[in-house]
Amino acid sequence: MASLDRPGELLIEAIRLTVNGDTHDLGVPSHYTLLEALRYVLGLTGPKQGCDKGDCGACTVLLDGVPTLSCILPVQEAIGKEVTTIEGLAAPDAPHALQDAFDLTGGAQCGFCTSGILMSAAALLAANRSPTRLEIREALAGNLCRCTGYTKIYEAIELAAAALREERMPAELKGS
Amino acid sequence: MLRLHPYVYHRPRRLDEALELLKEHSGDVLPIAGGTDLVPNMKHGLFAPGHLVALKGIDELHGIEERDGELAIGAAESLTAVASHPLVNDHFPALAHAASLVAHPMIRNQGTLGGNICLDTRCTYYNQTHFWRRALGYCLKKDGDVCHVVAGGTKCVAAHSADTPPILMALDAAVDIASADGERSIKLSDFFTADGMWNKRLERHELVTRVRIPLPSPKLHATYTKVRERKSVDFPLLSIALAVELDDSGVMDSISLIVAALGAKPRVIGGLDKIAVGKKPTDDIVEAVARQTYRQCNPLDNIIVEIEWRRAMVPVYVRRSFNAILAEPRATA
Ligand SMILES: Cc1cc2nc3c(=O)[nH]c(=O)nc-3n(C[C@H](O)[C@H](O)[C@H](O)COP(=O)(O)OP(=O)(O)OC[C@H]3O[C@@H](n4cnc5c(N)ncnc54)[C@H](O)[C@@H]3O)c2cc1C
Ligand code: SF4
Ligand code: FES
Ligand code: FES
Question: Over the range A29-51, which residues count as b (16 or more CB within 10 Å of their CB) and which as e?
Answer without folding.
Answer: bbbbbbbbbbbebbebebbbbbb
